[in-house]
Design goal:
With about 325 residues, this protein is an alpha/beta fold. It has nine helices and ten strands. It is globular and about 85 Å long. The structure holds 2-acetamido-2-deoxy-beta-D-glucopyranose (NAG) (3 copies). The site of one 2-acetamido-2-deoxy-beta-D-glucopyranose (NAG) has 8 residues, from strand 5.
Length: about 325
């Protein structure tokens, strides 16, 4: 009797101690400013200004030979991918990226790339660029944490080489883009300036858990909420926005999340995010193919790009418009 009572007391004490320890762990984990003591974070990863980077990567290494002043495109699609994702780029070249005229409007597709330290990959990219003339490349190392540099390279390219276009879209190589539906919606919008749309994120907070892919230290971003921004899986804007974002970027502190960074620039420019349609059209998730449901959907493999595209081509002849 006495013995079992003692065991009960000890186990209760044990449970209590575990509870206290867990509680302390959670507090420690969520409130500490990890950047000060972080042993997992690569040192020197946090950079305060984009100008720092621009200096060492001023020159374009690859440029498409496109003259936007002759026959200005209606829409320019800028697709981010890494050097080793040739298969994904090929799938896009054969599907939604090959469409040059939609509703008699000109569309151009380009790929945004950084460089790789792998010499073989670098040589392949050069050959690919010469073969397809659709690669925009600069000298920064192509990593997830350099996506902001990649996006800003796209903005710079539009500003320098394609200001005559009407709209620009930034998207990823694992996204399906219904260029027919998008063109139709943009024509209806009929906007020429200060326009920005996509999958709107209005109340996102920085993720402070060190092990997350999206971890952002308080040093990198001290605020507790992000300004409104659009998911990087696909956003569209009137071409003037590219020059404005490039211009303001000199005074916007660097953050590695490219879509948040663009949101910070837009907030400073006082450009409001808008919906493209009364119903949702940009999806950061995967969906079954459906002709008039989405402009973008995510997690699409090269094989699925082909599959979705053949379904789109088949149905678009019978249904020339989604808006009637
Ligand atoms: C980003 O690119 C720069 C310039 O090439 C490079 O020095 C840096 O290491 C890259 N950053 C990351 C996190 O890979
Ligand atoms: C687009 O808007 C302009 C004014 O900004 C107007 O003159 C023009 O008629 C509109 N076009 C269409 C197709 O609605
Ligand atoms: C860039 O910013 C400067 C002020 O910082 C302004 O005078 C200029 O008009 C801006 N240019 C564009 C294209 O927005």
């Amino acid at each position: 009797m006495e013995k079992s009572g003692m065991a009960f007391k000890i186990s209760r004490m044990f449970i209590f101690l575990i509870a206290v320890a867990s509680f302390l762990c959670v507090c420690f984990y969520t409130t500490l400013n990890w950047s000060d003591i972080c042993i997992f974070c690569p040192k020197g990863e946090v950079v305060t200004s984009l100008t720092y980077f621009k200096k060492e990567t001023e020159k374009f290494l690859q440029l498409p030979d496109t003259d936007c002043s002759k026959n200005p495109p209606f829409l320019v699609l800028l697709v981010t991918s890494s050097c080793d994702q040739k298969e994904a780029r090929m799938a896009i070249r054969q599907t939604w990226g090959k469409e040059k005229l939609v509703a008699r409007k000109r569309i151009l597709t380009f790929f945004l790339l950084g460089t790789t330290e792998n010499q073989y990959e670098q040589t392949d990219v050069l050959a690919e660029s010469q073969a397809y003339k659709d690669i925009i490349q600069k000298g920064f190392i192509d990593t997830y944490y350099n996506l902001t540099l990649k996006t800003m390279m796209g903005m710079e390219w539009v500003h320098k080489f394609c200001q005559q276009s009407s709209f620009v879209m930034k998207t990823d190589s694992d996204v399906f883009v219904n260029v027919f539906y998008l063109t139709e919606l943009l024509l209806r919008k009929n906007r020429s300036s200060n326009f920005f749309t996509g999958f709107l994120k209005m109340n996102e907070r920085p993720i402070r858990q060190v092990f997350s892919k999206w971890y952002v230290s308080k040093y990198e971003y001290p605020g507790s909420t992000y300004p409104p921004f659009c998911s990087g899986t696909g956003y569209v804007f009137s071409t003037d926005v590219a020059s404005q974002v490039l211009n303001i970027s000199e005074s916007v502190p660097f953050i590695k999340l490219e879509d948040v960074y663009i949101g910070l620039c837009l907030a400073k420019l006082q450009i409001k995010l808008e919906e493209l349609n009364s119903k949702q059209t940009f999806f950061p998730i995967k969906l079954q193919f459906s002709l008039c449901r989405f402009v973008t959907c995510h997690y699409i493999t090269p094989r699925e790009q082909q599959d979705y595209w053949s379904q789109l081509e088949k149905s678009v002849d019978n249904m020339p418009s989604c808006l009637t």
